[in-house]
Design a protein that fits this description.
Chain A is α/β, with parallel strands linked by helices. Chain A folds into 2 domains: 41 residues, no CATH class; 115 residues, Nucleotidyltransferase, domain 5, CATH 3.30.420. Chain A is 40% helix and 19% strand. In chain A, the strands form 2 sheets. In chain A, strands 7-6-5-8-9 form a 5-stranded mixed beta sheet, with helices on one face. A two-stranded antiparallel ribbon of chain A has the order 1-2. The relative contact order of chain A is 0.14. Chain B is built from 7 helices and 7 strands. Chain B is α/β, with parallel strands linked by helices. Classes of the chains: A alpha/beta, B alpha/beta. At the A-B interface, helix 1, strand 3, strand 4 and helix 6 of A face helix 1, strand 1, strand 2, strand 3 and strand 6 of B.
């Protein structure tokens, strides 16, 4: 829709006719706005976040977990109704009747949570990583060195080794929450393991929540 | 002439406005990636992890709250080859037209026996019924395992991304994870949405 206006000079001859060439851009703007709207509605601006996990190979028995010092072992059990429990050390025969062994916790961050527990037990590593982070922020060390050193620090022999065991009643969110806590608390070694009959018995003894049903189905298999 | 009220032109110069819109349009066209059509709505759980998913070569596994599994491959030639290989494995022959239709599907998730009928349906109908199916992944008929194995055979650089709903029961996740472990796929990505890192 180019609009060409003619300047009418009342028929004076000799002078060339002047054309005022003015293009109306309104429809163009309309169309552009439409296209912008379309793109805004049909696109995702941010790429989804991911969490990388590495599972152990099935045919290789991981010695790492079995050789862990008992004082370092922490086991997190994911139970029914978004509840989470933990016990320290390994499970022994006499522990089944011990109501003090299994404790209830949560993912919130208060003094009763998994985070407080792990941060407390992983204090040295967390402290070192904090200092390192500060140095990185002050541009004293490069990003690659930072990453390398973090992996080194996480190898600390006295840091807790965490096993995450989910019951059949847990959901995916619980698992991610647990993995998240590992990330927050800078736990170097953790594994997702299958829940054992002993763990289920412990849960059953504490809560009476019907966990023995799972044991039965597992026996049938 | 002078006592007449001057007629003001209502003509507004839109050139500048047009410049701005074109600029915005260019920005959106360059930065955006299109939303992938997914057969079911899935809300991934939140996590503090800040790793981004790789751009290309992804095989994504979609798991909805009831445990139905869907898969998608991002490269069209891969899709065709994977279906061909699956056909060979299950002794089903797919015609070139069926392969073509499959190539254009954003995601798939029907049992392999019903694949031929599914591909013959019109697109709107496919979208409607795909929700009722899902790839079987139980221990008796683990088609998911075959899909994944063949996908990896076709393109060994594929990285696996699992997008599961927050409410998916753990046993279903365990089945998937065990299957991947059987295939010796020990490194994979779990897709989550971002949550702020708490102060510690």
């Amino acid at each position: 829709m180019a609009e060409i206006q003619e300047n009418n000079d009342n028929g004076k001859k000799g002078k060339q006719k002047k054309f005022n060439v003015r293009v109306d851009f309104t429809p163009m703007v309309d169309m552009n706005m439409l296209l912008i709207t379309f793109f805004m509605l049909c696109t995702t601006m941010s790429k989804p976040q991911t969490m990388e996990i590495a599972m152990p190979r099935k045919d290789v028995i991981d010695d790492d977990m079995t050789l862990v010092k008992e004082s370092n072992a922490v086991t997190i059990l994911l139970g029914k109704d978004d509840k989470v429990y933990y016990y320290l050390g390994r499970l022994k025969e006499e522990d089944y009747e011990n109501p003090e062994k299994l404790k209830e916790a949560n993912f919130s961050g208060d003094e009763n949570s998994i985070r407080t527990l792990l941060l407390g037990r992983n204090r040295e590593v967390v402290q070192q990583i904090k200092e390192l982070k500060l140095r990185k922020e002050n541009l004293e060390i490069a990003d690659s060195t930072y990453k390398k050193q973090v992996t080194e620090i996480k190898k600390d022999k006295d840091a807790p080794r965490v096993s995450i065991k989910a019951s059949d009643f847990a959901n995916y969110k619980n698992l991610i929450d647990a993995l998240d806590e590992m990330h927050i608390c800078n736990i170097g070694v953790y594994a997702i393991e299958d829940i054992t009959a002993g763990d289920l018995r412990l849960l059953e003894n504490l809560t009476g929540g019907g966990y023995e049903k799972q044991t039965e189905t597992e026996v049938k298999q | 002439m002078s006592n007449k009220i001057k007629k003001k032109s209502t003509f507004i110069d839109m050139t500048a406005m047009s410049d701005v819109t074109v600029l915005l349009l260019t920005f959106f066209m360059l930065t955006s990636t299109f939303v992938q059509k997914e057969p079911v709505q899935v809300n991934p759980p939140q996590s503090v992890s800040e790793i981004k998913i790789p751009e290309t070569n992804i095989v994504s596994v979609l798991i909805e709250p009831n445990g139905k599994v869907f898969m998608s491959l991002d490269k069209q030639p891969d899709r065709r080859e994977v279906l061909q290989k699956m056909g060979e494995f299950y002794k089903i022959e797919f015609t070139p037209e069926e392969l073509k239709t499959f190539e254009l599907l954003p995601s798939f998730g029907v049992p392999i026996r019903g694949m031929k009928e599914f591909l013959a349906l019109p697109t709107e109908r496919q979208d409607q019924i795909i929700m009722d199916y899902g790839i079987p992944c139980d221990s008796l008929n683990n088609e998911f395992k075959e899909w994944m194995r063949n996908a990896k055979l076709v393109n060994k650089d594929l990285s696996i991304a699992i997008k599961a709903d927050a409410k998916t029961p753990y046993p279903m996740m365990r089945d998937i994870m065990n299957t991947l472990q059987d295939l010796r796929e020990n490194r994979y990505n779990l897709i989550t949405s971002l949550k702020d890192m708490p102060e510690i």
